[in-house]
Amino acid sequence: MLQLVARNIPLMSARVLLVEDDARLASMVADYLGEAGFRMDLAPNGAEAMRRIGTDDFDAVILDLMLPDADGLDLCRGIRAKSDIPLLMLTARGDPLDRVVGLELGADDYLPKPFEPRELLARLRAILRRRHAPGSADVLRFGRLEIDKGSREVRVDGLRKTMTGHQFALLLALAERAGRVLSREALMDLTKGESLEDFDRSIDVHISRLRAAIEDDPKRPRRILTLRGAGYVFAKEQDR
User: How does residue 85 score in pLDDT terms, banded at 50, 70 and 90?
Assistant: First the structure.
């Protein structure tokens, strides 16, 4: 049995909504993250979660995909349609497709049940760091594409492109190393995401979402290029 003891963990002031119908697990997780310094709110179902997200100000959402009144993937889609709040999914279904679909819908990270509380804490901190990381006022420009590190905005032809915090971190990691081939392992490390697992395609999913946002034709990308068997490279010269 897991022992939920948080020791010597720096306090954080972030407010987190935990959407979990298992009252015992929700209480244990809330206590653990509360001891780590987070301000925890609980929602036992999808309807309550959407109501709270619409009225309250949260810094992150931890979302169980198996809820009594809603499919978690549908709820993820609904949350992302209203907000770009950092979103961490939990599931016990064990289907790898859920992970891919969830990431495609805009989740920042994914954790299967059962999980170690320390890993949940680490992943929560990671998505918050990615979203709130201080940046310079520098703007990286590649033809019609602009990446504003200060405001953490991405624009094409002056139009802002919506993406998750993880996707912005991934794009920035590529753009700051334009012209260099980066493996999936290197990108995982640069974005401080989860350790690479066998057959883990999360980087590929995020790349696909980035292409949908910034490429004129995602099926024929000119900004983020694939080098088969090697990784990805961000093109230095674009819009020619």
Answer: confident
